[in-house]
């Protein structure tokens, strides 16, 4: 099984990051092994009736990294690239993220290999309900609480709640987070991840003594994370000069109007040809001289070659795993880029998911103001803890973030001991 996981490039990357951090922490071998491998990996085949009358069989996975610190938490991704190893890597990163943020959760991730852009709403609903049905024995408010991720949204969560509630014979909103408000979702959840990316990126600017109103940014990816990150940065006074998505990349020296861009993308399906912008090569976009570069799409987009040519001051990782370990080494050696590592930068999403879960368990609801101010307090505390750890221990921000997370988990494992 280890070999199967390690054959996947993304898992290999997560494993290498883990090994390096475990070495840095001096973790003993037994705890190291217990921390590294996932607890449960579930794979399902799911036949779905398609609109044209065919039956298509999809493959989906749910990986629960650890159940030692509480129920597991993490999104569900719909993408053609989904593989068990990738899902396991993302579950491992969720684990360190939740521990770093001191949320009472282990990490999990789920995914289905499919192309949601080419599926009708009905097809997506049938696939989601089937997936929910398959996962039901293994998920729940005190075992595993899924949420949206790439290619899924609040509607996907609504179908899961409905499937689970119908089976249970009662309304069970606490089974997922990132739900629509009318199903006891939380105010602020939709924008939380992007808001957190902008919040941590501007906190990094502060550390560098750069005023937001003098700063510029490039955002790679304009989905839920990238679009809200761009919008919040613009509201903070940062000029968002470039944005890319699958349609292409655009640039404006004067800064793009992100509110108008959001409307344009909702209408046309992509950022390309947005009025008052010029097209730019998507790869070139990442290499522009700006203060903030926020990759908010896929894993492993910043490799060795890209890392050498980066001209940003702050690298704010909105996506999970956008920077390869080889690129990390170059960034560390260069020493002129302030890295806000993924498990810190995009932790706003799971933090507000935690708030949503708490509200569901308490049958209570908080205002958007309450949610976002609690979020900012939690992000600021962890950000400052991470930066001072890196300063005192003389390590990179990547190692600091992972070390803080991994140490929390390792301590719990040690204290609980081994059963039987
Ligand atoms: N999918 C998001 C992430 O990668 C959020 C997970 C959650 O809210 O549970 O952090």
Question: How is this structure best described in words?
Answer:
Helix content is 49%, strand content 17%. The chain has 420 residues and is α/β, with parallel strands linked by helices. Helix 8 (224-235) links the parallel strand 6 (216-220) and strand 7 (239-245). Glutamic acid binds at residues 73-75, 147, 149, 177-178, 320, 346, 349-350, 353.
**Could you say which overall geometry the principal axes of the C-alpha atoms support?**
globular
Distance between the termini: 23 Å
Query: What's the CATH H-level superfamily name of the largest domain?
Result: NAD(P)-binding Rossmann-like Domain
CATH top level label of the largest domain: Alpha Beta
Number of helices: 16
What is the string of SSEs from the N terminus onward?
A: HHHEEEHEHEHHEHEEHEHEHEHEHHHH
Number of domains as seen in the coordinates: 2
CATH topology of the largest domain, which one? Answer: Rossmann fold
Largest beta-sheet details = 7 strands, mixed
Tell me which ligands are bound: glutamic acid
- Low-pLDDT regions: none
**C-alpha-based Rg, rounded:** 21 Å
The CATH architecture name of the largest domain reads 3-Layer(aba) Sandwich
Arithmetic mean pLDDT = 97
- Strand line-up across the major sheet: 9-8-7-6-10-11-12
Overall structural class, as computed from helix and strand content, comes to alpha/beta
Helix content: 40-55%
Task: Count every beta strand, where a strand is a DSSP E run of 2 or more residues.
Answer: 12
Report the sheet-strand fraction. 15-25%
């Amino acid at each position: 099984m280890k070999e199967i996981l390690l054959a996947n490039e993304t898992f290999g990357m997560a494993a290498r990051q883990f090994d390096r951090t475990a070495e840095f922490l001096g973790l003993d071998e037994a705890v190291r092994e217990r921390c590294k491998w996932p607890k449960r990996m579930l794979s399902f085949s799911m036949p779905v009736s398609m609109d044209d009358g065919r039956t298509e069989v999809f493959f989906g996975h749910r990986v629960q990294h650890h159940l030692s610190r509480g129920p597991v938490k993490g999104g569900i991704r719909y993408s053609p690239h989904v593989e068990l190893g990738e899902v396991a890597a993302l579950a491992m990163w969720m684990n360190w993220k939740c521990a770093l943020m001191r949320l009472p959760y282990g990490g999990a991730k789920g995914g289905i290999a499919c192309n949601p852009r080419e599926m009708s709403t009905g097809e997506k609903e049938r696939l989601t309900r089937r997936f929910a049905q398959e996962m039901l024995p293994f998920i729940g408010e005190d075992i595993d609480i899924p949420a949206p991720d790439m290619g899924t949204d609040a509607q996907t969560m609504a179908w899961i709640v409905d499937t689970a509630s119908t089976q249970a014979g009662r309304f069970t909103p606490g089974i997922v987070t990132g739900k629509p408000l009318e199903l006891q979702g939380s105010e602020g959840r939709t924008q939380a991840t992007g808001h957190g990316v902008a919040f941590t990126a501007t906190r990094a600017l502060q550390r560098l003594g750069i005023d937001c109103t003098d700063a510029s940014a490039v955002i790679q990816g304009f989905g839920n994370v990238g679009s809200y990150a761009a919008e919040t940065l613009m509201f903070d006074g940062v000029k968002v000069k470039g944005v890319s998505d699958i349609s292409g990349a655009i640039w404006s020296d004067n800064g793009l109007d992100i509110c108008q861009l959001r409307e344009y993308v909702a209408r046309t399906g992509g950022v390309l040809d947005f009025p008052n912008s010029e097209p730019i090569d998507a790869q070139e976009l990442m290499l522009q001289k700006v203060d903030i570069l926020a990759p908010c799409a896929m894993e492993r987009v910043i490799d060795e070659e890209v890392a050498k040519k980066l001209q940003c001051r702050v690298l704010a990782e909105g996506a999970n795993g956008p920077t390869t370990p080889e690129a990390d080494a170059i960034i560390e050696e260069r020493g002129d880029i302030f890295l806000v590592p993924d498990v810190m930068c995009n932790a706003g999403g799971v933090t507000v998911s935690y708030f949503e879960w708490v509200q569901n368990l308490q049958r209570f609801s908080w205002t958007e103001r309450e949610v976002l101010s609690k979020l900012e307090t939690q992000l600021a505390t962890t950000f400052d803890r991470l930066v001072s750890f890196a300063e005192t221990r003389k390590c990179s921000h990547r190692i600091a973030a992972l070390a803080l997370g991994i140490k929390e988990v390792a301590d719990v494992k040690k204290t609980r001991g081994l059963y039987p």
